[in-house]
Predict the 3D structure of the following.
Amino acid sequence: MHALLQLGQTLFAAANSGPVEGASFLGLAVYFGLLLAILAGLMAYAKRGFGVQVFKNPITVLFEHLYLFIENMCVGSIGPNGRKYIPYIMTLWMVIFLSNVMALFFPEAPTADLNFNLGLAVMTILYVQIEGIRTNGFFGHLKHFAGPKLGIWMIPISGMIFCIEIISELMKNLSLSLRLYGNIHGGHMAVESMNALGTSIYIPIGAFLMPLKVLTCVVQALIFTLLTCVYLSLVTHHDVEDHAEAASSVAHAH
Amino acid sequence: MLGLGLGIAALGCGLGLGWIGNGALQGMARQPEAIGKLQIQMLIALAFVELVFLLTLFIAPGNFAGK
């Protein structure tokens, strides 16, 4: 216990000392508020296009296509019961994508900050665990970690698989958040160092990296939501008849 | 030393990404109706390969500091 306390104190001291990288929490809150304002404005504008036979409002049509895309992704990777998770997945998609687009124009954006990404990842993994418990029951969910049924003599092996699965579940937080952070923040760093090359001739060479960054915006938002779908599909399959199909899709996912 | 190490890591990452793209493109060309499924699996694989390079990028400066 004492060692744990000491570790916590050391971590706090390390976090408080040294130069602060990126925006402070207040700065992050300002950018996140801006993002939410843009999102709310867009959706309020899209809502005004309702109530007609054919949607003519371009923003409404845009959101409809986005919804169809997300629905296709959810149903395609989770199965017929994936429709339940559309609200969460779509929220994730819109926040991450808009924040990535903001990162093109501003020096700092919510997803270019590790704290925000870690928050998103922890939220996602907790949601996946809760959905797993809700679908299979608490012990069914725990049994899911222990791998396939191997028989009474293989209990040590199952225990080892259980430990490894727990670790991999914790590592999912790290991998989800670090991937997003590394791609967006790494894009900023790459643009800055390429700009430094062109300072003597007054050409912002980093601007030529923009098409790649636009591509990264879409791909990173897609990957985050897609991996969320895959994790959800891993924990929520429970029927015997689709077990073989789910297992094959799992094998492909890895 | 750090630059060389990162270069080697980027080389490996590029080889992996290229290989994935090659495989996915060949599969798509042979079976155009499977493009949707292949794209999703390809993106997941790309994400995993990219993550390895990003981990290198985060771990390397700490280990090479001052050397």
Chain A has a mean pLDDT of 84. Residues 155-197 of chain A form the longest helix (43 residues). The radius of gyration of chain A is 22 Å. Chain A has nine helices and no strands.
